[in-house]
């Protein structure tokens, strides 16, 4: 017998729906969505996301906004769409608690099995709702699928280039580790710092390769020349990919991208993620504005985003970074994602970590990074 896979539309947390269909659906099964009136516009999104044909989808949508306030109206609407002789697999993770209660009671009158998709634990729990609570008949099944970074961002309704434009580190692990040692054990001279500041302020945004001679003698496009650039490259033992010029990626690397790559390799070796990307661009559908994520990875179907900062000049600047990271998570990435700041600052008294924690953001400072504090 074919099944009908049932989910409640949840605009804020779409992951349980996606994973439940991915794990439970077999060839020939239908998919059913139950939705409040205000969330019905998400149904086409999930149909497309899951690669479904309209002919294999059923939708139960409350007719009026006020229907969601009435338990009896929700139940009558749902029952009016159900059929005896069909077998329903019902995922109770989604929607309001009120809606979930009504869905469970409505489907209980039909041939239905009930499940709860727990994304934090990465399991699906099959529960029998009966009068016995002592027969230990709950069945807990691990979720087998492991999502990529691109999948997780797409499920959250974000356009992204995590899969299509996947960017690899431009330098080896060994060289990036040598950069880390140079920047932390032997601080750069004031001259080197000024050279990097000019590169960062005036040339990091350019997308074309740049002649080193032009950069050092006249500058480009009315931008100031970069004094002592050749001396800096020699000090860092940085050999450009193409002799006599710097690519846009190399300028990014020199002006802070090296630390992003260091964190990238650090996460690879310590966390062993299912997928990891660097420099991912994201945007909400219909919005021209986009954001770039420094390092983002997927582990057990959870999304982790890391903002990398080599230094923070003041408490005010740190607070601004925390607010940015927090806003990005709440507005775009979803509250189920986890956000972190990795920085070479020394938070010896723990005050900055406390500020970040209050905003739901984790902070890894210089000592955490060097001492290998476990990632959590």
Fold blueprint:
Layout: E1 3-8, H1 15-24, E2 30-35, H2 43-49, E3 57-61, H3 71-79, E4 87-91, H4 97-107, E5 112-118, E6 123-127, E7 139-142, H5 149-155, E8 158-160, H6 173-185, H7 190-203, E9 210-211, H8 212-217, H9 229-235, E10 245-246, H10 248-271, E11 275-284, E12 291-299, E13 302-309, H11 315-333, E14 338-343, H12 351-358, E15 361-364, H13 366-371
Parallel strand pairs: 1-2, 1-4, 2-3, 4-5, 13-14, 14-15
Antiparallel strand pairs: 5-6, 6-7, 8-11, 9-10, 11-12, 12-13
Helix pairs in contact: 3-4, 6-10, 7-10
Please tag this protein with its features.
376 residues, alpha/beta, 7-stranded mixed beta sheet, 13 helices, 15 strands
How is this structure best described in words?
Helices cover 38% and strands 22% of the residues. The protein is of the alpha/beta class. The strands form three sheets. It has a seven-stranded mixed beta sheet. A six-stranded mixed beta sheet has the order 8-11-12-13-14-15, with helices on both faces. A two-stranded antiparallel ribbon has the order 9-10. Strand 13 (302-309), helix 11 (315-333) and strand 14 (338-343) form a beta-alpha-beta unit. Helix 6 crosses helix 10 (248-271) and helix 7 crosses helix 10. The longest helix is centred in the last third of the chain and has 24 residues, at 248-271.
């Amino acid at each position: 017998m074919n099944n009908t896979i049932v989910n409640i539309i949840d605009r804020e947390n779409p992951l349980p729906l996606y994973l439940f269909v991915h794990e439970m659906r077999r060839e020939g099964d239908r998919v059913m969505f139950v939705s409040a009136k205000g969330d019905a516009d998400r149904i086409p999104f999930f149909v497309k996301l899951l690669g479904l044909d309209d002919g294999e989808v059923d939708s139960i949508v409350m007719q009026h906004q006020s229907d969601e306030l009435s338990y009896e109206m929700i139940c009558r609407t749902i029952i009016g769409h159900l059929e005896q002789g069909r077998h329903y697999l019902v995922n109770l993770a989604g929607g309001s608690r009120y809606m979930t209660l009504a869905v469970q009671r409505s489907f209980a009158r039909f041939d239905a099995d009930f499940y709860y998709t727990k994304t934090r634990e990465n399991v699906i729990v099959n529960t029998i709702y009966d009068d016995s609570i002592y027969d230990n008949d709950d069945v807990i099944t691990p979720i087998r699928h492991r999502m990529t970074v691109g999948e997780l961002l797409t499920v959250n309704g974000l356009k992204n280039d995590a899969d299509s434009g996947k960017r690899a580190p431009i330098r080896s692990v060994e060289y990036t580790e040598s950069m880390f040692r140079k920047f932390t054990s032997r601080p750069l001279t004031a001259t080197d710092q000024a050279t990097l500041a000019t590169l960062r302020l005036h040339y990091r945004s350019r997308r074309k390769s740049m002649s080193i001679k032009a950069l050092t003698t006249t500058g480009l496009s009315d931008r100031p020349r970069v004094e002592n650039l050749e001396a800096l490259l020699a000090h860092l033992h940085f050999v450009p990919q193409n002799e006599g010029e710097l690519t846009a990626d190399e300028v990014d690397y020199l002006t802070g991208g090296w630390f992003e790559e260091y964190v990238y390799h650090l996460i690879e070796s310590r966390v062993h993620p299912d997928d990891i990307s660097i420099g991912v661009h994201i945007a909400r559908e219909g919005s021209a504005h986009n954001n770039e994520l420094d390092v983002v990875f997927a582990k057990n179907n959870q999304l982790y985003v890391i903002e990398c900062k080599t230094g923070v000049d003041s408490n005010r600047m740190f607070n601004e970074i925390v607010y940015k990271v927090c806003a990005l998570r709440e507005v775009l990435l979803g509250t189920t994602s986890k956000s972190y700041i990795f920085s070479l600052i020394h938070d010896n008294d723990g005050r900055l970590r406390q500020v970040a924690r209050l905003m739901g953001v984790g902070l890894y400072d210089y000592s955490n990074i060097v001492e290998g504090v476990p990632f959590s």
